[in-house]
Specification:
six-stranded parallel beta sheet, elongated, 12 strands, 10 helices, six-stranded antiparallel barrel, alpha/beta, 316 residues
Length: 316
Amino acid sequence: MQRWRGLEDIPQDWGRSVVTIGSYDGVHRGHQLIIGRTVERARELGVPSVVVTFDPHPSEVVRPGSHPPLLAPHHRRAELMGELGVDALLILPFTLEFSRLSPADFIVKVLVDKLHARAVIEGPNFRFGHKAAGDVTVLADLGVTYDYEVEVVDLYVTGEAGGGAPFSSTLTRRLVAEGDVAGAAEILGRPHRVEGVVVRGAQRGRELGFPTANVETLPHTAIPADGVYAGWLTAAGERMPAAISVGTNPQFEGTERTVEAYAIDRVGLDLYGLHVMVDFLAYVRGQRTFESIEALLEAIGDDVKRSRALTEEHDA
């Protein structure tokens, strides 16, 4: 998959293409339907498929300080889009000047002059241009002028976790924030992932016999609610069942919120300085303090036992 950052990166001889535009944070199941249809339509027309997205998130530029928690960094989104068969990913630097483009100017600048859109695929709630003045109706009307077709992918709704609401990144973020990682996975189509570099912490886990990887997460990452979770820790290409702790470690009067993963049944791991991935499968229990270190150790042992069983059941 080709990756471009900015309109100037698009090859001069780029021909016609099928395009979809959006933030696509998380590349959840709703996004997968739209992107999948983009790829399918491109193949029908014999042209490349292109996803257009933005960095930073438009809300941060329009309303500074309002950057939403991110379900996936751009490199992860690119990886997921590549798996869906996308031919090219265009990341547009989103600036205040860019945000002021009218819907028509946006279409001409991006879709017509640079990507030579043959077709544009979007969801029904797609908005674009200054103050989000453009919608799919405006997009289609401009398509008559600029010779591209528009296809709108129908809304699909979530199951029990989402209460029948449409697939959305906003809903997914809420479920993650509430600790409902199983519900978030239902929308994402995979476990929610947090990643970053392993750094040195207080090393209390090591002292207690359960050494953890203290993950310095990427900026704006969507972190699950405080608690203990079952999931996986992936380091240097190896995926290992893990018991994951999120929180401030109140047992030792901690104040800094951390994500720590214990690789179950693994001894002698040295992960410091490595970029790792933590995938959240299921909520195990809330964060709390215990009457004694012995009670804490008993609880951790139970956390590990439950996490082992949950990951084994999932992989069975």
